C-alpha cells in the first residue's frame, strides 16, 4: 500500500497500548460499587457510546455504510466480538490455576500468536506474503521476539511472586493446577484473539467507508461499532447475571449501600495487560493497603456522580486503545495483520510501566527487576522489527 507509514503506525499502536495499560487507573476512584456495576457502566462507554460517537464524527455516512455492508461480514464481526468477550471474562480462571504472571504470559502469548497469524493463514497468504518474502520473514521474526518478550516478562512476574509472603501467595494462587491452567489459558487466549478475527471479518465495512469518502486514517472506526457491540453483549449478559445473583442491581441508582453480608473477598482494581479483566481476577489479587474497598460491605453514602464519572473516564480510555489501533492498522500496508502483535506488546509494556510507577515492583530483587527490564526492552524491540518489516514492504511496493 503506497502512502503507508509503518513507523507512524507503530507510534499509533504504542498510543493504543498506553490507553489499554492505563484504563484501569480511573477505576481506582470508584468507591463502594461491586465489580459488575462499575465494569458495566464503564463498558457502556467503551463499547457503545465512544465507538458510535467517534465513528459518526470522523467517518462519512456511518449508517449508510453499515446498511450497505454484507450481512455475512456484519454477523461474523459481531460473533467474533462476542467470543472475544468470553475470552476476557474467562481470563480470571488462569489466575486461579496459574497465578497472575504465568497465567497472563501464557494467555497473552497464545492471543498474540493466534490473533496475528490466523488471518493470513485463513486467507491463504501465509506462504506467499509471509514466508515467501523478505519483509514477511522479518515480521515473523518480530512476532517470535514479541513472544520471547512476553515470556521474559512472565518470568519476571513469577520471580516477583516467589518473593511474596506466604499469605500473599495463598491468596493469589491457592488453587494452583498447571494442567487445568494451561487448558484454561489456551481457551482464554484463543477466544481473546477473536477480536483480531472480528476486525478482519469487518474489512468490507472499512472499504465501504472509504468509498463513501472517509479519510484512510479513519476507515477502521466503523468496524469497531460492530465488533464492540458483540463484546458488549457478552459482558452485559454476564454483569446482569451477577447483578441478580449478588443483588447489586440497585447500586446503579442508590446512593446508599444496603446492609448485606460480605459475599466476596476484597476487590481491587487489577493492573492487568488484558483487555477485559474479569471479576475473578479482581477477587483473587491480594488487596494492597490504602486502596478503596469496592465490595458489598455497608458504609454510608456512595459517591454516585464520582463513580459514574470515573467509570466513564475508564471506559473512554479503554476505547482509545482501539481508536489508535485502527489508525495504526491503516499505516501498516499489506501486512496490517501484524498490528495485533504490536498491540499485545504495547499493552504489556505500558501496563508494566504503570506498575513500576505505582511502586508495585518496590522491594523486588535485582534479578526480578533485571528480568522485567529485559522483557520490556524485548517487547519494544519486537515492535520496531515488525515496523521495519512493514517498511521494507512499502519500499518494494513503491518501486
Sum this structure up briefly.
The protein is mainly alpha-helical and 399 residues long.
Indicate the multimeric state: single chain
Radius of gyration (Å): 21 Å
| Number of self-contained structural domains | 1
Major sheet attributes: none
State the order of secondary-structure elements, H for helix, E for strand: HHHHHHHHHHHHHHHHH
Task: Summarize model confidence as the mean pLDDT.
Answer: 81
Cα distance spanning the termini: 11 Å
Share of residues in helices: over 70%
Which outline best applies? Answer: globular
> How many alpha or pi helices?
17
Structural class: mainly alpha
Secondary structure: number of strands: 0
Strand share of the residues? Answer: under 5%
Provide the low-confidence segments as ranges.
261-274, 280-297
Fold blueprint:
Blueprint: H1 6-22, H2 35-58, H3 62-68, H4 71-89, H5 91-98, H6 100-122, H7 126-131, H8 134-162, H9 166-173, H10 178-192, H11 194-201, H12 203-211, H13 221-246, H14 279-284, H15 304-330, H16 339-357, H17 366-398
Commentary on this structure:
The chain is an all-alpha fold and about 400 residues long. It has one domain (about 5-290, about 300-399). About 70% of the residues lie in helices and about 0% in strands. It contains 17 helices and no strands. The protein has helices spanning about 5-20, 35-60, 60-70, 70-90, 90-100, 100-120, 125-130, 135-160, 165-175, 180-190, 195-200, 205-210, 220-245, 280-285, 305-330, 340-355, 365-399. The protein is globular, with a radius of gyration of 21 Å.
Amino acid at each position: 500500500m503506497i502512502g503507508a507509514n509503518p513507523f507512524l503506525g507503530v507510534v499509533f499502536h504504542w498510543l493504543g497500548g498506553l490507553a489499554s495499560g492505563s484504563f484501569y487507573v480511573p477505576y481506582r476512584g470508584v468507591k463502594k460499587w461491586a465489580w459488575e456495576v462499575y465494569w458495566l457502566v464503564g463498558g457502556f462507554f467503551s463499547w457503545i457510546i465512544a465507538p458510535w460517537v467517534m465513528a459518526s464524527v470522523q467517518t462519512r455516512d456511518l449508517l449508510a455504510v453499515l446498511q450497505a455492508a454484507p450481512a455475512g461480514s456484519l454477523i461474523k464481526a459481531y460473533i467474533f466480538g462476542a467470543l472475544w468477550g468470553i475470552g476476557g471474562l474467562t481470563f480470571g480462571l488462569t489466575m486461579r490455576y496459574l497465578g497472575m504472571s504465568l497465567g497472563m504470559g501464557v494467555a497473552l502469548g497464545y492471543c498474540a500468536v493466534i490473533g496475528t497469524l490466523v488471518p493470513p493463514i485463513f486467507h491463504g497468504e501465509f506462504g506467499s506474503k509471509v514466508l515467501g518474502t523478505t519483509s514477511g520473514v522479518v515480521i515473523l521474526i518480530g512476532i517470535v521476539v514479541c513472544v520471547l518478550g512476553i515470556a521474559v516478562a512472565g518470568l519476571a512476574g513469577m520471580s516477583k511472586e516467589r518473593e511474596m509472603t506466604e499469605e500473599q501467595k495463598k491468596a493469589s494462587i491457592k488453587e494452583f493446577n498447571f494442567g487445568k491452567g494451561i487448558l484454561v489459558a489456551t481457551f482464554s487466549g484463543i477466544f481473546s484473539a477473536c477480536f483480531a478475527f472480528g476486525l478482519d471479518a469487518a474489512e468490507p465495512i472499512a472499504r465501504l467507508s472509504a468509498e463513501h469518502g472517509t479519510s484512510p486514517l479513519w476507515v477502521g472506526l466503523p468496524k469497531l461499532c460492530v465488533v464492540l457491540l458483540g463484546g458488549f453483549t457478552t459482558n452485559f449478559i454476564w454483569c446482569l447475571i451477577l447483578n441478580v445473583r449478588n443483588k447489586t442491581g440497585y447500586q446503579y441508582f442508590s446512593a446508599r449501600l444496603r446492609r448485606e453480608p460480605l459475599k466476596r473477598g476484597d476487590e481491587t482494581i487489577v493492573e492487568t495487560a488484558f483487555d477485559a479483566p474479569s471479576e475473578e481476577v479482581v477477587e483473587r489479587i491480594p488487596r494492597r493497603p490504602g486502596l478503596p474497598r469496592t465490595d458489598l460491605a455497608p458504609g454510608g453514602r456512595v459517591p454516585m456522580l464520582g463513580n459514574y464519572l470515573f467509570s466513564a473516564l475508564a471506559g473512554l480510555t479503554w476505547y482509545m486503545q482501539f481508536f489508535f489501533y485502527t489508525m495504526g492498522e491503516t499505516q501498516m500496508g499489506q501486512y496490517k495483520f501484524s498490528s495485533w502483535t504490536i498491540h499485545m506488546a504495547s499493552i504489556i509494556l505500558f501496563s508494566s510501566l504503570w506498575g513500576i510507577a505505582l511502586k508495585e515492583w518496590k522491594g523486588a530483587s535485582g534479578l526480578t527487576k533485571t528480568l522485567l527490564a529485559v522483557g520490556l526492552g524485548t517487547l519494544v524491540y519486537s515492535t520496531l522489527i515488525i515496523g521495519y518489516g512493514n517498511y521494507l514492504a512499502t519500499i518494494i511496493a513503491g518501486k
